[in-house]
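Recap from last week: sequence in, structure out.
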Amino acid sequence: MNKIVLLISLIVSVTINAQIPANYYNTANGLSGYTLKSQLRTIISNGHINHGYNNLYNGYITTDTDNYYENDGTVLDIYSENPNGTDPYNYTHNNNKCGSYSNEGDCYNREHLMPQSWFNSAQPMKSDIHHVVPSDGKVNGQRGNYPLADVSSASWTSQNGSKRGACADAGYGGTVFEPIDEFKGDVARIYFYMATRYENEIGSWQGANASSNAVLDGSSDHVFENWYFDVLYQWHIQDPVSQREIDRNNAAYDYQGNANPFISHPEWVNAIWNPIPDTEVPSTPTNLNYANLADVSVDLMWTASTDNTGVAGYEIYKDGSLIGSSPTNSFSVANLAANTSYSFYVKAYDASQNFSGISNTINVTTLNAFIFLVDDNFDNCGTTSAFVPFSEASTNNWTCSNQYGENNSACIQMNGYQDDVASKDWLITDNAINFSQYSNEKLSVYLIHKYGSMSLDLLYSTNYDGVGNPVNYTWTAMPNITIDTHDGSSTEVIQVISNADISSLTQDAYVAFRYYVNAAGPTRWTVDSFKISAQNTANISDMAFRSSISLYPNPMNDELTIKSDSTIDYISIYNLLGELILDKNKTNTLDVSELNSGVYLIKIVNQFNQIAFKKIIKE
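Predicted structure tokens:
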């Protein structure tokens, strides 16, 4: 990786491969207990260069850049990073530095994970990049110099879930600040680093204020109060070293010439503070299985391991590479690719970093991604809409509008302005929808109703042929959807149906809006933003055939050409009343010169008896 080396007051940019030397810890080999800790202090103190407090912002370019979550090159701030989604705000390096602030996202500054009030802002602690990290100014101010520990009841919570409140850990009853789980192990190993690097100084920090007195025991060897060591140790175990920590440690070594030994050797925490060796490995996890398979995620679960001192957690491997850890016998894998095969296995570990054998390996293929089976905003509803109007008995019809829809966009409307006109009008999808090939179907639609109290029905039919009079077929109300009726007033009412679950539909079906009204009291209905999304669970050859069809020119004049990836067996053209107008076998061109101007449906059948309906327009 390329790193930027900052030499005290001069900023000199060179390209190197940052790496802690292989023999860096050689003199610590074979040691344990506080003897190991003291030797590590010697190792990580030698070569430590203090570049000063102001230079930290430049150091953060290599130590704290987000190349792991959004991977967008912004400042990686543990108090604003959202590991499972979009960050609430971002900072670019050396821009928006605090300064004053009122809210989160105003500016970022430098957070001393061990508050500088504990050591009277003395150097080199004040400028040690291992524990001084970039932080949103507002969150840093809320943290203050409170101990970092677990919160039972939050009095303030940041936008990424970091929180301040009453301590949940036995042994302390004051206010503490809790980072999110993603970074608790990082914080713990930084505290172990500080206890080691400043072994000769830290014993005097206990009396600095109430916060340091609560955390530190006044010694130079054990350093921490027992309750607080238990917190750090638990965080260290439950959030093992990540690739981000390894990279940050290498960059910090490159920047200031020393490293955090507990990132390179996390087992040394146990070797120093609990030096009785534990060499027994946990039992191997068994019965690895999965559930809740989706397009980009899957949940893993397995039978728990046992160990003489207790299982600390499990490492999870995807295609042979470590992807995370879990303190329990389950793990949710995210950020997978759709329609892709993966192999998984897990290993158990204990506090002494003894690892079990690998579990059984399972192979999982993710589902295809969510797609839209129907996605119609009616911007071109006169030509390319997914719906076709049908008048069962009416002199009116569904009418396209270039306004009045969602955000005053285009839409399609049904009459609400002629009190003396009866209406039996349908708006039907131009093709049957492949519910049989998909799962997790969701329906969304934007509706507006005004005047009258006439209902609008949303129905589906599994036996409609796509061309006949819909009244002659069986129609059923769409599941889990209720369309409101108007109260008869002139008040315009908006109803938005979002992601209604229609997954109980398992057969291919047409979907239709049906509007029936007698001569009096019509309601004006507006339909917009109609969507049906789904996950593919089977072969999509029918969908592929339909997608491969192109018709040109459309609108047409005297001739229509049909192009498809498969051989066309026959073609039929119907008017909107379902009457057959033209029928041709095994052709890709049609003479349509005799057709009257208007809208028609064309039925295309290939050699595999796959069927597609399309709308065509004769000028």
